[in-house]
Design a protein that fits this description.
It contains 10 helices and 10 strands. It is α+β, with helices and mostly antiparallel strands and 365 residues long. It is globular and about 50 Å long.
Length: 365
């Protein structure tokens, strides 16, 4: 999403030496298609030359001597690099927090900030990010192809090491309560933090989006969990959750026909009889002249990345359409690749810093 940072091919030896997270400024030059923006102070991208190197670099998520939790904040800004850099600085300014990845997409007009650390540090970073985002973004000036309900749209917490889901729920509710109190915004909880069964699924909680939010709040039938039931035209609402590891994986189809992407998404997602634990949408990417099947793999142990990619490729081929490329939004565990190389699932410019395992291991040092 955004512009791809230029990467240099490296030998397997140099790649092995560079497998731990790297901090510092990065190049802003884009590659042919443009999909990933490495914001200033974010993680430096490197490409993997071979699938064999990937297997050597990426190990299973290790045990670490301190509790770790991940936050995957989705922000309704994907075009203004200076603004995104400010958001990144807000996160990285918190001691004990690692900003693993920033993934920005201009068509979606959305960015995903993936960071981890101890619970207290991640809580502080999430609130610092909220402060900056809610002071900068005005949804009255926002348009993008991805569904959204707020400037700070979705803030899920994922327990990684030494924590139970109950700990993530408690953290999510502290953060949700603090945002609602500080910014006087409606906050709904979802996932394991949901207060009602019908609020477990994110698509259900976000249904209607920003465009229907005023009506939703006015009717009073679905009051927020925190904050006033009033419509804030500038910031919208915030959805805060606790969940398991989720892999966000998109496949670009070599066509401009968004109906093809929607048909493929329908065939792939679980709710339409497709793959288990998969959510999917078909979206246009007008700035790139292609369409996209945007997927959430809710449980990579049930449906790993290769199974999702192969199914999308098969469904697209049935409609006479090829695959342009794929992209990973944020980071993913090595296990999600089920032994396949990144190149085999369309990730030609994959970098080891996109492996969650690498960052968890680094946190133990």
């Amino acid at each position: 999403m955004g512009s791809v940072v230029a990467t240099r091919q490296r030998s397997p030896r140099s790649m092995m030496a560079a497998s731990s997270p790297t901090r510092g400024p990065t190049s802003t030059r884009g590659s042919e298609t443009g999909c990933r923006s490495r914001i200033a102070c974010s993680v430096r991208a490197r490409s993997l030359p071979t699938g064999r190197t990937f297997i050597a670099v990426a190990r299973s998520i290790p045990d670490v001597p301190r509790p770790l939790i991940e936050c995957v904040a989705n922000v309704s800004e994907g075009r203004d690099r200076a603004r995104l850099a400010l958001f990144a600085v807000a996160v990285r300014g918190v001691p004990g927090v690692t900003l693993m990845d920033v993934h920005a997409d201009a068509d979606h007009h959305r960015s995903v900030f993936s960071f981890l650390g101890t619970p207290g540090a991640v809580e502080t970073a999430a609130l610092a990010l909220a402060e900056r985002v809610l002071g900068e973004i005005d949804l009255r000036e926002h348009e993008g192809v991805h569904p959204r309900i707020g400037a700070l749209d979705v803030v899920p917490f994922v327990p990684l090491a030494g924590l139970e889901m109950a700990d993530a729920v408690a953290l999510a509710r502290r953060v949700g309560r603090a945002i609602a109190t500080r910014h006087r915004l409606p906050v709904w909880y979802y996932g394991h933090a949901a207060t009602r069964p019908e609020r477990r699924r994110l698509p259900d909680v976000r249904r209607g989006g920003y465009e229907r939010l005023a009506e939703r709040l006015a009717t009073g039938g679905d009051p927020p969990d925190e904050g006033p039931p009033r419509f804030d035209a500038r910031a919208g609402a915030v959805l805060v959750g606790a969940r398991e590891i989720l892999v966000a994986f998109n496949v670009w189809l070599d066509t401009r026909d968004v109906e093809v992407a929607r048909e493929v998404a329908r065939a792939v997602r679980e709710s339409s009889g497709g793959l288990a634990a998969v959510q999917a949408l078909g979206l246009p990417l007008p700035r790139r002249g292609v369409v996209q099947v945007s997927m959430n793999l809710l449980d990579h142990r049930v449906t790993p990345i290769p199974a999702a990619f192969d199914r999308v490729r098969e469904e697209a081929a049935r409609r006479g359409v090829g695959i342009r490329r794929a992209e990973l939004v944020g980071v993913a565990p090595r296990a999600a690749f089920a032994g396949r190389s990144p190149e085999s699932v369309g990730l030609a410019d994959f970098a080891p810093e996109l492996l969650l395992d690498v960052h968890v291991a680094a946190s133990a040092r």
